[in-house]
Every structure is written in structure tokens, then in C-alpha cells.
Input
Amino acid sequence: MSALTASRANIPTRINDPINAAVLAVSEDRVPGFHSDPIGEIARLSEIEPDIVIERIRAMLEAGAIRRVRQTLLATNLAEGALVAWQFPADKLDAAFDYLYEQDPFSGHVVIRSTDTASTPGARYRLWTTLKVPQGYSLDRYANFLRDKTGAERYRLMPARYLFALGVGHVRRQNLAIGSKADVPAEAVATETVSLTDREWQVLVSLKREFAPNEIVRDLWSARAEEAGVHLDEFLAVGRALNERGVIGRFSTFLEHVKPTGGEQRVTRYNALFHWAVPPGRELEAGREIGRFHIMTHAYWREAGPEFNNVNIMGVAHGLDKDVILQHKAAMDSHLAEVGIDVAYTNVFWGGRSEIKPSEISPLAFCDFCRKNGIDPESMQ
Output
């Protein structure tokens, strides 16, 4: 073993190592927008030297404690997208999961969910995914293709009308007090499609690609600018402009949601999808109240329809203890009652088997996929 290999082998990779925890508490979801120096921003906020930040992120990525590092996008503003609930015959459920995770680039989160009682509205919809198609193409037509390909009995598309919370910071959420919330309601962010030029797409494709361990350096963007075929100054200018137009999410290190990492550590064990049905006309108010709770990683206004008892507010929370998650849910329910928002129905869909990957949103990638599967891309418009 070389001296370099030996020294890297001695770098702690457990997520509860104090330095790693300090880095992750920032790098998971505390670097919003586009930064010309994301590593420097993580170092500043965590008060850890940049070289150590690089060393630790590289080591955790190589060890699998971090599953990916990438600049995220607000893809709801770049592509047609929805949360999809799928109903399958029991004998086709696992095969459908495998196909959507392994072979469909446009499905992102793929999760098998269950409810505490079989009588829960929508309980037969076991497979939940996110789905996106590039601008100009039909989400319904592509979902029909996936239905026929996988043997689904039916599906329900639930586009997000507004976002109230979006940031998966597992480490910093592990010791939250029950009911911890912001002093003011969350911001309501509308989902509005933004059109890009070919040049902007050229930069964006390189910008969003996840980083390999050897690419984690202080100067992250020079190699990506070269890959995109533009000068670094132009690359950074496009990144800043896209950020101002609301299509950039955050620079993020992603941990495994449920599966154990190195040393059999779990950062989370339970994945809960909360459902609330609030009176029509009060969706924005209710969503902003739910979004202020720190336990929430996602909160949206989505119309689930009669299959799910007309749920219109949804949110996701993660944790290591099921009872603790339910206590957080009870605190949110109490808060809604206190502010005078009636809830006609509420429930929890628990995540089981799950895989998370970014959905592809490139029009060129979509056309290529269609042709490889014997589909005329124009038929998907």
C-alpha cells in the first residue's frame, strides 16, 4: 500500500464523525443556488478548512456514505413533471420497480409505499415515482407508455402547483425538537416553466452531472466549462443567470435515504409521505404552515383526486424512529387546527423499498431514448 493510499484509508468516513457531521450539516441542503466556489461556501458555513472539506467529501463518496454530489436544479421549472402513484398486480410490482429505477431515465424517486390499514384511500397504489419529460412533450403520453411497458393497472399524475419546502438535510434533522418550526410561514414557490436556449442547455447538461470523487476539487467548474465547450467566465455567467431565473436548486451531497452505509450506519430509517385534505381556497395558506416545520424535507400543493380522498397538501419527512415522526405529524396537525385550517382527511404512506436518482430532463436524451425504444419522439408531443 502506498503512503497516499494508506493516508486516505485513515480518513474517517462515518457520518457521525464530528468533522464529517459538521460538513454534512451544511453540504446536504445549506448551499442554495449557484456558487462559483461551492467548496468554499461549505467551508465558510461549516467553519472547516476547504482542503479538509474536499478530503472528507471525497472519502465519504468513495466509501458510499455519500451516494452522489451534484448541483441540483429546480426541475419543476425546466420540465413537465409530477408525482405518480401506480397501481400494479402484486406479481408485477417488483419488476416494475426495477424497470423504472434501472431503465427509465425520466423516473426519479422510485418508492414502494404502504399504509397502516388496507382501507386507507389509495392503499392499492403501492409504487410511487417522480416523473419528468422535457418541455414540449406530453407527460400523459409518456406515462401511458410506461403503463403499457410495466403492466400497470392504472396511475394518478399529481403535478406540483406550489412548493413550500425542498431540502433533504438528514444530519441536521436528527435531533430536532418535536414541532420545531420557523417563526414565519414558508415561502410559496410557483412552478413556472422557463425556456432555455441551446447554449444554456449545453452549459446546464455539464453543470448538473454528478461529480466523481476525483472531480471534487476547489475549482469545480473549470473542467465542466471545458466539457461544455465554453470559457469558464461564460460558464459561470450562465450559471448565475439560470439561478436568477429560478432553475437552480442547490449544491448538495446526498446521503442514502434508508439503506445503511459504511459501518452499517443509517442516517434515516423511515420515509413518511403525509397527506392532508384542506378546504379549497386554503391550499397556499396550509402549505405555507406545513412548510415552516423543520422536519419537512418536501412540501407541495398537489391534487390527488378522489382516489386519495381529495388530498391537496403533501409532504415528506424522514427519521430513525417511527413514533418520533408521528409525533412531528401530530404537532403539525395541532398547528393547523390552531391557525383555523380544517383538515377533512389526513394519512401517512410509509416508504419501503426505495431508490433515488435524478430525473433526466434533456430534450436530446428524451429523443434518443424514444428512438431506442421504437417510438417516434413527435408522437410524444
Remarks:
- The two ends are 56 Å apart (CA to CA).
